[in-house]
């Protein structure tokens, strides 16, 4: 499980000091924090991220450092179990949380008279962030594919396995060379690939390591909201709204061309559990803004803020009816669509002919692709 956050700061007179730990019961070993600090300052001591394994604390630590040039150098440490990798949450999610935490820390520095109140707000924010991270461990199948797409390591694995089958050790070596960094916990990084049935792992007789085979591929893109379009063709929720909605959908998709940047944008929305809840909700029907179902403790202002973000990213659209009431429709449906990797058959033939793929591995790969195709 996610243990919590430890935030430290560096000052010339005190050295490395604890700023905040949450939950407060989280034990902090300053010697361990110094190890992480040294990992950051080795070299240019610039702002950046490191992943440090602390055996004594039984933790993996995803740490962000603001750099020694910052007014106050802060180190924000997400404490994880040893078998956890921050990759499972997505790079952008961790980055966004760190950025928001830093905003609170700067406010504490700049407004000392309000430091207590801001610190309490920061604790609430961290509490909610930890809840979000726990939810990210229970994603749907299409969310896991979006998670792969938003991860540098995930995209690299997909790119490598689209060329050939590899042993886990070979894949690790290729990734380390490709990404110029050490790869720890490869099994954790491969977990979303396994859970979405994108890859199969199998032993080849005589080999000392398990082999990985890509047997399904996917793409991230926007598609029309089929259920809502069917409703609109039946003049639902009203003839006026149905007409306006179909006009907007036709206008958008008449000019829509999937791009890597846009696919990345919608993938980030998909892996956010709160945004994804809204996407799945509006896939089924349109709602007047004052009748959108709320989660316990969720405020109307929070809902409006979330809707605003999704509207800005052209996922939702807001249409006023003839009485001036705002209705929320799904303008575009972000989805991860799987497809059969037929292109691999020619690559297997080619790699085998070039003696870059062993014959018995090629035969196993073709057998797995045949089994998947029959399903």
Describe the protein in words.
It contains 14 helices and 13 strands. It has 375 residues and is of the alpha+beta class. It has three domains: 134 residues, Beta-Lactamase; 109 residues, Winged helix-like DNA-binding domain superfamily/Winged helix DNA-binding domain (Arc Repressor Mutant, subunit A); 119 residues, Winged helix-like DNA-binding domain superfamily/Winged helix DNA-binding domain (Arc Repressor Mutant, subunit A). It has a five-stranded antiparallel sheet with strand order 2-1-5-4-3, sandwiched between helices. A three-stranded antiparallel sheet has the order 6-8-7. Strands 10-12-11 form a three-stranded antiparallel sheet. Helix 4 packs across helix 10 and helix 13 runs antiparallel to helix 14.
């Amino acid at each position: 499980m996610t243990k919590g956050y430890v935030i430290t700061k560096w000052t010339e007179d005190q050295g490395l000091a604890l700023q905040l730990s949450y939950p407060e019961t989280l034990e902090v070993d300053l010697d361990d924090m110094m190890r992480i600090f040294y990992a950051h300052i080795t070299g240019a001591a610039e702002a950046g991220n490191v992943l440090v394994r602390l055996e004594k604390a039984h933790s993996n630590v995803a740490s962000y450092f603001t750099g020694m040039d910052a007014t106050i150098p802060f180190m924000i440490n997400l404490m994880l179990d040893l078998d956890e990798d921050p990759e499972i949450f997505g790079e952008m999610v961790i980055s966004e949380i760190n950025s928001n935490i830093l905003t609170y820390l700067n406010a504490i520095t700049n407004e000392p008279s309000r430091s207590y109140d801001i610190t309490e707000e920061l604790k609430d924010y961290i509490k909610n962030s930890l809840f979000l991270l726990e939810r990210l461990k229970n994603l749907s199948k299409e969310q896991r594919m979006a998670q792969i797409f938003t991860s540098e390591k995930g995209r690299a694995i997909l790119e490598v396995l689209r060329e050939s089958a590899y042993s886990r050790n070979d894949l690790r070596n290729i990734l380390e060379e490709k990404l110029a960094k050490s790869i720890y916990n490869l099994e954790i990084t491969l977990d979303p690939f396994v859970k979405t049935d994108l890859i199969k792992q199998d032993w080849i007789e005589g080999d000392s390591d398990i082999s990985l085979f890509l047997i399904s591929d996917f793409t991230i893109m926007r598609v029309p909201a089929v259920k809502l379009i069917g409703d609109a063709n039946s003049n639902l929720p009203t003839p006026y709204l149905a007409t306006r909605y179909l006009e907007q959908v036709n206008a958008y998709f008449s000019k829509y061309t999937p791009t890597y940047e846009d696919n990345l944008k919608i993938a980030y929305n998909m892996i956010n559990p709160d945004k994804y809840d809204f996407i799945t909700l509006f896939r089924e029907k349109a709602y007047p803004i004052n009748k959108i179902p709320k989660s316990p403790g969720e405020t109307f202002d929070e809902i409006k803020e979330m809707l605003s973000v999704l509207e800005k990213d052209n996922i939702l659209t807001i249409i006023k009816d003839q009485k001036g009431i705002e209705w929320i429709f799904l303008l575009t449906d972000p989805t991860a669509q799987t497809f059969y990797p037929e292109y691999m058959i020619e690559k297997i033939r080619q790699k085998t002919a070039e003696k870059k793929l062993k014959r018995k591995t090629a035969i196993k790969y073709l057998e797995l692709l045949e089994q998947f195709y029959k399903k």
